[in-house]
Design goal:
The chain is built from six helices and two strands, in the order ααααααββ. It is mainly α and about 220 residues long. The protein starts with a helix and ends in a 21-residue tail after the last strand. It is found in: Melanosome membrane.
Length: about 220
């Protein structure tokens, strides 16, 4: 899972970061319901766990988990700012998605305005008591992009598993200088050399549970 996070943090665009990081996100959900005996996990056994979309947010671990996902995103943004590679304007953030065929707004009229759709339950006054997120100026993906400014919080530390994130800067500089940049190229991260080889492009790690148990599948 740590390999997956490091891989995501070295991606050159936010869209690629997003597509890789989701694997480690899914693993946590998957691992919340595993078999307890020799039989396979049944749908009923996982009904009220973080493994099911209907009940996942009822588990306090959900908020701890997504707080960490948010922190990893903040680290990705911070790294790009330190390296001077991204200005993080709204349009630069959206452009990666607009260029991807899967999200191509010219070919997908069903999602052409999705960045400006009101997000539920934030736009529902009966469900959202917050005057900040209930505001029309912040309840869309486009307008809530600067969420840290909206909510007034910053992270004190970006350490990864007790290890400094700073070696990631050198990892990325080496990757960008490589003549193989843009192609699958293995590297060993200075953050955690003991993890061995990591791939820096589109190679994806398993999005299942990495424990010895076989989990039920969680899809998002």
């Amino acid at each position: 899972m740590t390999k997956n996070v490091i891989q995501a943090l070295t991606m050159p665009t936010f869209e690629k970061f997003d597509s890789i990081e989701v694997n480690s996100h899914n693993q946590i959900h998957n691992c919340m319901c595993v078999r307890t005996n020799t039989s396979e996990v049944t749908k009923e056994e996982c009904r009220y766990s973080m493994n099911t979309i209907d009940f996942t947010s009822f588990d306090p671990l959900f908020f701890l988990h997504h707080g960490q996902v948010d922190r990893i995103l903040a680290l990705y943004q911070h790294i790009r700012e330190v390296l001077g590679q991204q200005d993080w304007t709204k349009e630069s953030f959206l452009q990666d998605y607009k260029n991807e065929e899967h999200y191509n707004f010219t070919k997908r009229p069903d999602i052409s305005g999705s960045f400006d759709w009101p997000m539920s339950p934030f736009c529902n006054a009966s469900m959202n008591p917050s005057y900040v997120t209930l505001n029309k100026g912040s309840w869309t993906i486009r307008n809530s992009y600067y969420y840290q400014e909206l909510f007034g919080y910053k992270y004190d530390s970006f350490d990864l598993g007790g290890k400094s994130w700073l070696p990631l800067l050198e990892d990325i500089k080496k990757i960008y200088r490589s003549e193989n940049y843009g192609h699958e190229r293995p590297f060993v991260s200075g953050v955690a050399p003991e993890l061995g080889v990591i791939y820096n492009t589109t190679h994806s790690f398993s999005d299942g549970c990495t424990t010895k148990y076989k989990p039920a599948k969680f899809k998002v």
